[in-house]
Amino acid sequence: MSQRAEGQKRSYEIEIFRAWCKSCGICVAFCPRQCIEMDEDGNPQVVAPERCTGCGWCETHCPDFAISVRVKKEPKAEAV
Length: 80
What we know:
With 80 residues, this protein is of the alpha+beta class. The chain is 12% helix and 20% strand.
């Protein structure tokens, strides 16, 4: 496991699987940080991934398993 620099915040990736999503909006309703919004066509889209805390509420409540939240992988530091 890599160590983060002091004070560095963990960041997350939010992925929406379009083929599984029925655009019900539950992920938008449950996101406490407003990271996901509905677009003009009524489909959820990630608008503020930097605000995500990784709570997973969107993922847990999605009836179609169409959303995934995971820790963003940090690039490995090169040995000197």
